[in-house]
Specification:
This protein has 175 residues and is of the alpha/beta class. The chain has helices spanning 38-47, 49-57, 93-109, 129-146, 160-174; strands at 2-5, 8-14, 24-30, 66-70, 78-85, 114-118, 152-157. The chain has a 7-stranded mixed sheet, sandwiched between helices. Strand 1 and strand 2 form a beta hairpin. The model has no long low-confidence stretch (mean pLDDT 95).
Length: 175
């Protein structure tokens, strides 16, 4: 599914965010920026431990903030680490909204053309797929209507139910 929202093409696809062809991918990080399980663990396994070392050198950060590192051995040039939870690995709506906003703002500041995001806070954080998708798409809509970068936002659902939640939220936003 693909829609034009403001100046951005927003795409929903199923797959592994570590394999997406984009200028940056987003990691649903903790404030300490260590990379354990979930998306962070997948990024570390696929891209190498240097990503975690670079991230931790930039931390700790506050919930909702984002920092960028190299992409290590990944296809992408950058990983944007967006803190959606503290060391307790608990997240909430405000954290997901602000982490999405910070990721998009950082991509804009870096002059990136494309960014790929998984559903933030829904893995280790345990947040609802549908609610996270709605929150993230709302922030993407606000950003895309005021900024021209990134021009392409790819939302990646690992499982079919994540893709369905993203497609429903994108469909509602595009109306």
């Amino acid at each position: 599914m693909e829609r034009l929202i403001g100046s951005a093409v927003v795409v929903v696809q199923q797959g592994d965010v570590t394999a997406v062809d984009a200028d940056a991918i987003v990691n649903a990080a903790n404030t300490q920026l260590w990379m354990g399980g979930g998306v962070a663990g997948a990024i570390k396994r696929a891209g190498g431990g240097q990503i975690e070392r670079e991230a931790m050198a930039r931390g700790p950060i506050q919930i909702g903030e984002a920092v960028a590192t190299s992409g290590g051995h990944l296809r992408t040039r950058h990983v944007i680490h967006a803190a959606t939870m503290g060391p307790d690995l608990v997240t909430g709506a405000d954290a997901i909204r602000s982490a999405t906003r910070s990721s998009l703002r950082l991509a804009e500041e870096m002059g990136l053309s494309s960014i790929a995001l998984p559903l933030l806070g829904t893995g280790v954080g345990g947040f609802s797929l549908e609610e996270a998708a709605t929150l993230m798409l709302a922030e993407i809509g606000v950003h895309a209507r005021r900024a021209d970068r990134p021009a392409k936002v790819i939302l990646v659902g690992f499982q079919p139910e994540a893709v369905r939640a993203l497609e429903a939220a994108l469909g509602a936003l595009a109306r």
